[in-house]
Amino acid sequence: MSKVMGIDLAGLEKNDTGICSLIFSEDKEIAKVVKVKKVKTDAQILSEIEKEMPLVVAIDAPLSLPKRGMMRSCDKELQQYGAISPLLGGMKALTERAIELKRIISESYEVIEVNARIGAKMLGYYNKDTSVQQKALIEMGIEGDIKERILSEDEIDAISAAIIAYLYVNGKCMAIGGEDGYTIVPKL
């Protein structure tokens, strides 16, 4: 059995960060959610990663800044799906936090940048109503905490980030971007 993690990072530690750990067997197409939770601090995030020891950590936040201007090349390419500049408003604090977490996590684990909502749109299950999205994920065969309770938007986005990590591990993703950073998205 293998694990990947998805993190829907909040810009500030006072806000909820969603974390999802997906476990899957090498011979199965369907990944199963084993744990979804909310945490707040960087220390809590790092503790969860150390407990789970995933193959890949997918962070739903920009992991780099533009070299020039307001947008990175990956943001420009994904703008049609809703990507925005990592320098706008609260995105700057989120990006700074994400860059620092990536620096720490990448000492021991592979870290990729994802955009959970864009991934969900590309995979065809995104809905503004998270309960509809949760139902769609269950219908896709996702199990675990997702069947036990109503999940928050942060937790749903963490599941989407983890699904992208799962697809990435299985060679079903592509990198969008350039020298100023890449966002990993599902292959269409």
How would you characterize this protein structure?
Helix content is 36%, strand content 24%. Helix 4 (116-123) crosses helix 6 (153-169). A hairpin with a 7-residue loop joins strand 2 and strand 3 (32-39). It has a single domain (2-186), classed as Ribonuclease H-like superfamily/Ribonuclease H (Nucleotidyltransferase, domain 5, 2-Layer Sandwich). The chain has 6 helices and 7 strands. By secondary structure, the chain is an alpha/beta fold.
Which short descriptors sum up this protein?
single chain; 188 residues; Nucleotidyltransferase, domain 5; five-stranded mixed beta sheet; 7 strands; 36% helix
| Pattern of helices and strands | EEEHEHHEHHHEE
**Low-pLDDT stretches:** none
How much helical structure, as a percent, in the residues? Answer: 25-40%
CATH superfamily: Ribonuclease H-like superfamily/Ribonuclease H
Average pLDDT across residues?
93
List the helices and strands and how they pair.
Layout: E1 2-8, E2 17-24, E3 32-39, H1 42-52, E4 56-60, H2 73-77, H3 90-105, E5 110-114, H4 116-123, H5 130-139, H6 153-169, E6 173-178, E7 181-186
Parallel strand pairs: 1-4, 4-5
Antiparallel strand pairs: 1-2, 2-3, 6-7
Helix pairs in contact: 4-6
Q: Quick summary of this structure?
A:
The chain is an alpha/beta fold and 188 residues long. Helices cover 36% and strands 24% of the residues. The strands form two sheets. It has a five-stranded mixed beta sheet with strand order 3-2-1-4-5. A two-stranded antiparallel ribbon has the order 6-7.
